[in-house]
Prior knowledge:
By secondary structure, this protein is mainly alpha-helical. It has helices at residues 2-17, 23-38, 48-61, 64-85, 90-94, 101-105, 113-126, 133-146, 175-180, 191-207, 211-244, 250-261, 266-277, 288-294, and strands at 165-166, 184-185. The longest helix is centred in the C-terminal third of the chain and has 34 residues, at 211-244. The termini are far apart.
Amino acid sequence: MACRYDRYQQAEAWQGRGMDLFSPLRYLLCQHLAQQYLYLLADNNYYPDQVIHNLTTRFVMSNNQPKRHLILNLVRFINSEQAMSQGASLAQLRQLPAWSATELFGVTAAISQDEYIAIHLAQYRTGQVQQTLSQWQSVLQQLLEKDNHWLWLLDDNIVNDGDKVTLADFWPLGAGDEQKLSVNVKAIYTQNGEKALHELLDEIALAVNDTALFSQRRNQFISNYHQQYQSAWLRLAQAMPQAESYIRGKSNWQQLMLDTAQNASPYLLFFNRLAIESTSIPQSEQQPWLSDQLSL
């Protein structure tokens, strides 16, 4: 079996690189090796009708982070299937974002993901694949409709640079005092957070079957997200005066005076940061306080 797997991988590599073999011959060789590879293999495919109930139940019962993982794995699985159906090579498929069968289907995978991709691609090559792509897309649509607010997207863990914004970013505070001032802006409500959010939504957009509906839902979600985004920054702005009473020690006061003299006061730093972090919010969606501040 390992030998057949290696031969089939080599044939796919030839196909992908366009080696010097005459094209029809290369195609027939790839077909032959794909058939050899599939011979006597067990059915390791995943079928929608076998897992839809399990997927839906797990999604409904899960917290936001597991929900996001479930959606993301399903999306990447669908996008991999789409790429296969569109003629992607084995090398191209292995460059796509990875998905986990264990996280998606709740079962321990019998084979590695690389092997699954190779087997399924061989089935496409030989016409033995069952066409289930539209069914998987329907499953995704059902899950997206189970939570109309998509709160599972609003998680700091999707942000690579997951640092929240705190009062200590603007005031010279000690670690202990920083913890007492619990007001902060979560990383998801920063420019890095919004970038990560759109990257995830872009992946989902590739997988859905009704792109117009998804685009509409996405726009609604982002509009609501921008309102929450602004509210998070407003709470931090309102807490700014509290931080001054937590400045302790001569050195911290000296640093504050020096910063203020050099046009780097906490308030100026905050408003400069706010202007940067608000660039993606359209004027039509800006709350009055933000619009007034940005117009100064």
